[in-house]
Each structure stands twice: as structure tokens, then as C-alpha cells.
Write a structure and sequence with these properties.
It is a multi-pass membrane protein. The chain is mainly α. 80% of the residues lie in helices and 0% in strands. It has one domain (2-182). The termini are far apart.
Length: 187
């Protein structure tokens, strides 16, 4: 535990800022993933149940506010609007995971470079440069790069996982549209 305090005491403000930024990114990544995972899973379940009810003849249209008032028929393009609205709602926030996944390694690398430059500046002024002196400085500086990679990997993994769930949701929506729009002579 004392080595952690020593690390924070000896690190440059830029490195500390980098680590705080990456920590914030990591927390946001986890929050977005769990929130979107459960909300998209719920949406998929609802659309699957709606599809089953339509196929069994228990309902005529999807369970969405756009279809509540259908006594006068459906307006043209209503299915396209419904699909776009559903996919947009499900995919909101996913681009931020992609941004975190692509920028985190660079943020960590920036912290590493600044820390190494600062360390070489201090080492150069003392005139003592040997492997025994440089190795601990470089290993300490690489912590920022490791933090960037540690943040990027889950963000990218979660992005792909959620993107697949959004695709599955789109499939359920499209199956409902296809079944409802198919001419009755083919049923």
C-alpha cells in the first residue's frame, strides 16, 4: 500500500490526470455496459413476446405506442419509423464505448511519454544514467499505458457484445414487420 502512495507522490501531474481520466472512462464503460445490457435484453424479450403473440393471433400489431390507435388504419411508413425509433433507443450510448475503446490506449501512452520525459529530464540533470536508474523510471511510467489498455479492452468487448444485442433486437422487429406486411394470401 505504501508503494501506491509513493507512486502518486512521485508521478507528474499529467500522469495523475491521465490516470484519473482513464479511471473515469473505466467507470463510465461499466455503467454504460450494465445499463444497456439490461435495457436491450428487456427490449429483446418484449419484442420476442410481441412476435410470438402476433404469430399466435393474440394481437395484430407490435406493443408500441405508435400502434395504440389503429382503428383508422396504419399510416404509411409507420413500421419504418417504429424500427428506426427502436434501434436508435437501443443503440444510444454505444458510440461512446467505441470512443473509449479507441482513445484510451492513446491517453495512457500520452501519460507514459510525459512521465518518461520528466524522468529523463531529472536523470539528465544529475548526470547519473545507468540501467539500474532508468529501469524503475520506465516501469513506473508504463503504468499509464497499462491503464489505457485495461480501459480499452472491456470497452471494445462490451461495445461488440451490445452491438450484437442491438442486431438481435432489430431481427425481432423486422420479423414482426415482415409477418404483418406480408399479403394475407400467403398465410
Amino acid at each position: 500500500m505504501s508503494s501506491l502512495f509513493i507512486f502518486f507522490e512521485e508521478s507528474s501531474p499529467i500522469t495523475l490526470f491521465t490516470l484519473v481520466w482513464l479511471s473515469f472512462y473505466f467507470v463510465i464503460t461499466l455503467w454504460i455496459f450494465f445499463y444497456k445490457y439490461f435495457s436491450i435484453s428487456s427490449m429483446c424479450k418484449d419484442e420476442q413476446e410481441s412476435l410470438d403473440a402476433i404469430l399466435q393471433g393474440q394481437q395484430r400489431f407490435p406493443k408500441d405506442a405508435l400502434f395504440f390507435n389503429t382503428e383508422h388504419g396504419l399510416k404509411p411508413g409507420i413500421f419504418s419509423i417504429w424500427k428506426s425509433k427502436t434501434i436508435k433507443e437501443a443503440s444510444t450510448g454505444l458510440s461512446f464505448l467505441s470512443i473509449i475503446a479507441s482513445t484510451s490506449p492513446f491517453i495512457g501512452l500520452f501519460g507514459t511519454v510525459v512521465e518518461i520525459l520528466d524522468a529523463f529530464g531529472r536523470l539528465g540533470s544529475t548526470g547519473q544514467i545507468s540501467f539500474d536508474v532508468i529501469a524503475p523510471v520506465i516501469s513506473k511510467a508504463l503504468i499509464a499505458t497499462a491503464a489505457g489498455i485495461l480501459t480499452a479492452i472491456p470497452a471494445y468487448t462490451f461495445f461488440l457484445s451490445l452491438k450484437r444485442k442491438v442486431y438481435d433486437l432489430g431481427v425481432y422487429v423486422q420479423m414482426q414487420i415482415d409477418y404483418i406486411v406480408v399479403p394475407h394470401s400467403f398465410r
